[in-house]
Amino acid sequence: xxxxxxxxxxxxxxxxxxxxxxxxxxxxxxxxxxxxxxxxxxxxxxxxxxxxxxxxxxxxxxxxxxxxxxxxxxxxxxxxxxxxxxxxxxxxxxxxxxxxxxxxxxxxxxxxxxxxxxxxxxxxxxxxxxxxxxxxxxxxxxxxxxxxxxxxxxxxxxxxxxxxxxxxxxxxxxxxxxxxxxxxxxxxxxxxxxxxxxxxxxxxxxxxxxxxxxxxxxxxxxxxxxxxxxxxxxxxxxxxxxxxxxxxxxxxxxxxxxxxxxxxxxxxxxxxxxxxxxxxxxxxxxxxxxxxxxxxxxxxxxxxxxxxxxxxxxxxxxxxxxxxxxxxxxx
Length: 331
Fold this sequence. Notes:
By secondary structure, the chain is mainly β.
């Protein structure tokens, strides 16, 4: 949950958007026709995931012909006037992967956060890291990022295991799973491990649009965790003529925590039964109602929050924000 001031919550009137490029160049609200920000704290599913590394995206239309945007890094800021002063909050950090100038003298852009750019394009090179958190620190160094919040779960020992052959994004997801979460890029552009947490935000019929609430028929609960652990052993043999042959043998073991019929399935070659038990004790038992809510934008809400939603009959539900889409149309 993003912390905003009481004055910001009480303020009314239009919102202002601003894009700030890495070189200090700014695109002000007057030149921003529309923006759509999509962020997630989950894999591509409507059920909880562990070890996903979702990427946030930003699409938009700007006034004028901007031929200098492609490949540029930028940050998005949104704010409103509070007692005569513009109060802004950073909403994300992105790299523009595509910018197209139209005949109507406008520019459309497509941008992604580091999970889909720096992290995806960089192969992780193992160093001296021996735990999940120190691997994440090495990933940040190699991808040019900063390591943010990694949660409170006890660290996981990955010494003695091969860490080769993965992109930084894939490796970050594996390490995040060991720490009980998903690998996300926060609004400041930092790599974080994030799991779902309660937010002090309530949405009722007065907050969401008419027809803007759709909920599943029943709650879903996280009662069981199962993890497939595949290990590969390479054996080398030399015959009497001096010829060497190499053979690989793979073995898959399934680890489990908890009892029940609903939960999370994942695959992680570094998971242990002890670490899975720690994760289960930390996040197990979570119960929620899945659905979609369409409402006026609230800058406090971030992907990974659990908000309270009240329907027209007064029933209250805990709804996790697995994916969040925020649209800005000029104010």
